[in-house]
């Protein structure tokens, strides 16, 4: 394909709307949050990634305005939800009379958890997402009700847990007991679902950096989740994002919290090994 | 205005005839990825084809650039520019590419527009739900002909 021509046409379309951004692959911008947390948005691809040399955060594909909203917590709308989660962190709920804080101290003490999930849980004998782990604490330790998997209580809490790990490298284990789940996720990633017969790889591996209609394709990394999207003005979960992308192939989607999407999550997270955790991120 | 109305009626008549005559997607005969026979026997409508390039199930410019369609914003960069497509391809080849590009270009990302079986987890359009009953191809046989007629105007 002739990229120069492609860009030329794109530029015509854009200049009609007097937008000055240059369409291209990942840009060269660097992300430092609050002037202190350095975010790695570009890293050498993990050895298991056969078709990529370099991995990029989705942040590198966004326009400057969107990017800068993530550089300062006061400007990042995702932090309203992080603050709400601080309250639930300290709220006693359930028969056991405990809050998250009763067992875990400060949210900051959880730094380092987010980059390793989804993760094999020996007792449960399965790979668990961070949401599953939080609900495990709620039902087993607190004897409280489960939160809805993609509901706001849960998503806000995941945003809080992510925020305290910002700057730490994504580092999920893909071998040992997690391997079978990882393989399943990998197979899903390369499956051409739906009537449009499109796989994740078609868009996010073969065509990142290219425009698909008005959208600038990124590598579809999840190091930045939950993501505050300007489009729907809320925090978006990983499973809802996957569900949306699969729906857009005119496929029957998978349900959030399903074992299928947890497997896909493990695989996609492993594609970002080495990138920094940066959630809650800001995307369009 | 009266003329536009008449044209619209003519077009819808054509569409009806097309449904009766068109081969089922599985019965279309491909030779080296090309389809010699018109799917409907009714000449394609260039104007209708032009619209399908932009909208609905066609949305070809999601992936392709077309200078002739520059009045429309946001052309994709996934596939090659279609400028001069009619210089590069015969009508039968363009029909084959639009109907099922995966025969001309194995493994291509381009969707197959005249096909309705053989999918993995097909859904009911963009609802994310399971389909109810048999799927319709992304484009009707006449819409394929309309798009082919439009592509045949793309000469350099």
From TrEMBL, chain A:
Residues 72-165 form the Cytochrome c domain. One of its GO terms (molecular function) is protein heterodimerization activity. Residues 1-24 form the signal peptide. One of its GO terms (biological process) is sulfur oxidation. Keywords: Electron transport, Heme, Iron, Metal-binding, Periplasm, Signal, Transferase, Transport. Its EC number is 2.8.5.2. It is found in: Periplasm. Heme c 2 binds at residues 200, 203-204, 245. SUPFAM superfamilies: Cytochrome c (SSF46626). One of its GO terms (cellular component) is periplasmic space. The active site is at residue 245. Substrate binds at residue 241. It is an enzyme of class 2 (transferase). Heme c 1 binds at residues 100, 103-104, 137. Heterodimer of SoxA and SoxX. Belongs to the SoxA family. This is SoxAX cytochrome complex subunit A.
């Amino acid at each position: 394909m002739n990229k120069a021509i492609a860009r030329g046409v794109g530029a015509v379309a854009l200049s009609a709307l007097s937008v000055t951004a240059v369409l291209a692959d990942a840009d060269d911008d660097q992300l430092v949050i609050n002037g202190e947390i350095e975010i790695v948005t570009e890293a050498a691809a993990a050895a298991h990634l056969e078709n990529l040399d370099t991995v990029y955060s989705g942040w590198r594909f966004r326009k400057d305005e969107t990017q800068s909203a993530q550089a300062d917590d006061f400007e990042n709308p995702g932090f309203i939800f992080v603050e709400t989660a601080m309250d639930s962190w300290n709220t006693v709920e359930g028969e056991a009379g405990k809050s998250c804080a009763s067992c875990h101290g400060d949210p900051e003490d959880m730094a380092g958890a987010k980059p390793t999930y989804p993760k094999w849980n020996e007792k449960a004998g399965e790979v668990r997402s961070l949401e599953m782990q939080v609900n495990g604490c709620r039902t087993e330790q607190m004897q409280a009700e489960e939160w809805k998997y993609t509901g706001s209580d849960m998503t806000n809490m995941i945003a809080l847990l992510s925020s305290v790990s910002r700057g730490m490298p994504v580092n999920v284990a893909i071998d040992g007991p997690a391997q079978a789940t990882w393989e399943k996720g990998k197979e899903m990633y390369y499956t051409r679902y739906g009537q449009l017969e499109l796989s994740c790889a078609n868009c996010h591996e073969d065509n990142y950096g290219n425009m698909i209609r008005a959208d600038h394709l990124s590598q579809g990394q999840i190091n930045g989740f939950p993501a505050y999207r300007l489009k729907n003005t809320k925090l978006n979960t990983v499973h809802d994002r996957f569900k949306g992308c699969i729906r857009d192939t005119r496929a029957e989607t998978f349900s959030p919290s399903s074992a299928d999407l947890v497997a896909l999550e493990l695989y996609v997270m492993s594609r970002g090994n080495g990138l920094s955790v940066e959630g809650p991120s800001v995307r369009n | 205005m009266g003329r536009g109305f008449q044209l619209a009626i003519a077009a819808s008549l054509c569409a009806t005839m097309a449904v009766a005559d068109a081969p089922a997607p599985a019965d279309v005969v491909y030779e080296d990825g090309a389809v010699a026979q018109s799917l409907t026997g009714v000449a394609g409508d260039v104007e209708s084809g032009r619209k399908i390039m932009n909208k609905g199930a066609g949305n070809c410019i999601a992936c392709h650039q077309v200078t002739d369609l520059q009045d429309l914003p946001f052309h994709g960069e996934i596939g090659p520019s279609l400028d001069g497509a009619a210089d590069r391809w015969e009508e039968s080849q363009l029909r084959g590419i639009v109907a099922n590009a995966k025969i001309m270009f194995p493994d291509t990302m381009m969707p197959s527009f005249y096909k309705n079986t053989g999918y993995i987890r097909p859904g009911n359009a963009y609802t994310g739900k399971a389909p109810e009953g048999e799927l319709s191809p992304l484009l009707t046989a006449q819409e394929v002909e309309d798009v082919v007629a439009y592509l045949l105007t793309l000469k350099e």
